[in-house]
């Protein structure tokens, strides 16, 4: 896991994700999920690429069902991009790095 990816949980989700002024990409995943494992190197590469501009968080849905339920995560992997405490974009399944980067760029531009 990239040094720029942190774990969020039911207890710290509000502070770690919603109460920040940077865009935040949250990866809802589970260790048994093969597509989630396939997405991990993409998220890690993006975290390295956007270090300092965007926060990257992972939420294990098995260990943190409240966060997943709160945002209606019904399939994993699900990436949700937040800015200003609001959901701005959702991607379900394994997305290409370029697609995720385009969504991130839009939020970074709007945050500045």
Look at the structure and give the CATH class: Alpha Beta
How helix-rich are the residues, as a percent range?
25-40%
Strand content: 25-35%
Spatial order of strands in the largest sheet: 1-3-2-4-5
- Secondary-structure-based class equals alpha/beta
What string, H for helix and E for strand, traces the elements in order?
A: EHEHEHEEH
Describe the structure.
This protein has 112 residues and is of the alpha/beta class. The chain has one domain (5-111): 3-Layer(aba) Sandwich (Glutaredoxin), CATH 3.40.30.10. Helices cover 38% and strands 25% of the residues. The chain contains four helices and five strands, in the order βαβαβαββα. Strands 1-3-2-4-5 form a five-stranded mixed sheet. Strand 4 and strand 5 form a beta hairpin. The termini are far apart. The model has no long low-confidence stretch (mean pLDDT 94).
Short descriptors:
globular; alpha/beta; Glutaredoxin; 112 residues; 4 helices
Task: Please write out the topology.
Layout: E1 5-7, H1 13-18, E2 24-29, H2 34-49, E3 55-60, H3 65-70, E4 78-83, E5 86-92, H4 97-111
Parallel strand pairs: 1-3, 2-3
Antiparallel strand pairs: 2-4, 4-5
What can be said about this structure in brief?
The chain has 112 residues and is of the alpha/beta class. 38% of the residues lie in helices and 25% in strands. It has a single domain, classed as Glutaredoxin (3-Layer(aba) Sandwich).
